[in-house]
Amino acid sequence: MDLIKFKERGIKKREALDLFYEEDFYDILKFADQLRKEEVGDVVTYVVNRNINFTNICYCNCKFCAFHVPEEDEKAYFLDIKEIVKKAIEAKQLGCTEVCIQGGLHPKIDTYYQAEILKAIKERVDIHIHAFSPMEVYFAAENANLDVEEALKILKESGLDSMPGTAAEILDDEVREKICPNKIKTKEWVYIIKKAHSLGIPTTSTMMYGHVEDYKDWVNHLFLLREIQEETKGFTEFVPLSFMYKLSPLYRDGKSRAGASGIEDLKVFAISRIIFYRVLKNIQASWVKLGKKLVQVSLRAGANDVGGTLIEENISKSAGATVSSMSIEEIKEMIRQVNLKPAQRDTLYKLIRYD
């Protein structure tokens, strides 16, 4: 297999698809590891952060999600702004450089409410706020009778520093109709992301895989992200999200497979590294989704970041994740065990310190 040609001229969609079907995949992993080393060296980064999932009340009813509940459910919660601010202050005191704020789609939430959250935090603590997915921005803007651009401007002025590029799932409308029919369409997700980038709001990018889609959908999704990055340069990282199937209604109803295999997980990291070569250099392996050992292998298959300490994570936990936080020392040891060098970064990948 002549992989060097992909480095010299880039990879085409058909070739990327062929790699996903390739049975002898060790050369692919090794090649991706070489590209990772060339682009970012042997440093593996992490961020010290806290997730604040401020409500699990959501009426989007995505079929893959085990986090959402109706308002009348006994497990339903909605943190008030004072409690959110308290958690942000605690995060700063614990050494966090970032709070990631996301929640369900509740009728009470509009752009002005989101702005109140941002302003209340910024008034009390100096910390990077990474908040509100494209779906949350769209939903809140509709509730406020604003267009997306106006909403994003208000959020930025109120203290929004960056956005998670979640709600992407698979950027194909046929797949989205099966797994999240009430969510924004592919075109709307792309529009919101590009608009955020144009306003100086960087975002992450994601792909949730291992449910009802196929390899062709993976490739189309990855190339669409690449096209956006070539145009805007607004993505800070790519985060593959392996489908947490155990408690998902989609799986329990027999409408999806039982997640991706370990080999598929590694192929996603490796082939993503090849596709994004010289366009998007940071690829994150989520220990929440993959577990410690598979993350370690991913770091030798194209990934160069392990995400955050999280401190508090509820969305993956509700879907069956067994670990929802990890200490800095555990993260550093996980990286060192595969002969790589841990370094703390901020949300925008500025290195804070080498460990």
Architecture overview:
- The protein has 355 residues and is an alpha/beta fold.
- Helix content is 45%, strand content 13%.
- The chain is built from 16 helices and nine strands.
- The strands form three sheets. It has a four-stranded mixed sheet. Strands 2-3-4 form a three-stranded parallel sheet, covered by helices on one side.
- It is globular, with a radius of gyration of 19 Å.
Distance between the termini: 38 Å
Order of strands, widest sheet = 7-1-8-9
Which regions have little confidence, pLDDT < 50, spanning 5+ residues? 313-322
Assembly type: single chain
Enumerate how many helices there are, as a single number.
16
The major pleated sheet works out as: 4 strands, mixed
What would you call the shape? Answer: globular
Count the strands?
Answer: 9
The helix-strand sequence is HHHEEHEHEHHHHEHEHHHHEHHEE
Radius of gyration: 19 Å
Question: What's the pLDDT, averaged over the residues?
Answer: 93
Q: Would you spell out the secondary-structure blueprint of this structure?
A:
Layout: H1 4-9, H2 13-21, H3 26-40, E1 43-47, E2 49-53, H4 81-93, E3 98-102, H5 111-124, E4 128-131, H6 134-143, H7 148-158, H8 173-179, H9 186-198, E5 203-209, H10 215-232, E6 235-242, H11 249-252, H12 262-275, H13 287-290, H14 292-298, E7 305-308, H15 315-318, H16 328-336, E8 341-345, E9 351-354
Features:
about 350 residues; alpha/beta; 4-stranded mixed sheet; 3-stranded parallel sheet; about 45% helix
Summarize, please:
By secondary structure, the protein is of the alpha/beta class.
